[in-house]
Amino acid sequence: MTTARDIMTPDAECIGANESALLAAHKMAELGVGALPICGADERLKGVLTDRDIVVKVLAADKDPAEIKAGELAQGEAVTIGADDDASEILRTMSEHKVRRLPVIDGHTLVGMVAQADVARALPDPAVGDLVEALSVG
Questions:
Q1: Phi then psi dihedrals of residue 97, to 5 deg
Q2: CA 51/CA 21 separation, integer angstroms
Q3: Which of 81, 83, 116, 122 has the most CB atoms within 10 Å of its CB?
Q4: Where, if anywhere, are coiled coils annotated (predicted)?
């Protein structure tokens, strides 16, 4: 059984909820990623910030990325996957919530991220095709 822990990118770096969208953009560029988990002062996951969030909610809205805090851009409760959840649960969760990236947690601790590309590399073609189709609709 393939689990989230097997296919995740480990050691995901957080952006602090009180850190700026500008710092988040720099961190994304430095790490070569399109999303960062948002963590609060309590080290708990508050959400996920994507490069698209920065473009649409900050830049296109004529807001100053140095002034907007990452935590202000978090939408509701973060959709996550447990480290020991199997691949079918990853597919179900991504499809149901129409997300391309999932923070992987072990208890309340962030241990990694699973992206659509990770799933594509790890699972058989038909399952990946179903996921891509589910995420592409609407």
A1: -95, 0
A2: 10
A3: 81
A4: none
Cα-trace Rg, the chain: 15
pLDDT confidence of residue 44: 82
Q: Which backbone phi and psi does 28 adopt, to 5 degrees?
A: -60, -45
| Cα–Cα distances in angstroms (integers) from residue 114 to residues 3, 69, 82, 103, in the given order | 10, 24, 11, 6
Say if residues 74 and 38 touch (Cβ distance below 8 Å): yes
Non-local (6+) Cβ contacts of 117 within 8 A are none
**Sign of the dihedral through C-alpha 123, 127, 130, 131:** negative
Residues 18 and 16: their CA atoms lie apart, in Å, by: 5
* CATH 3.10.580.10 fits domain 4-136: yes
pLDDT at 42: 82
Closest listed residue to residue 131, CA positions, set 103, 94, 102, 104:
94
- C-alpha–C-alpha distance, residues 63 and 67, integer Å: 8
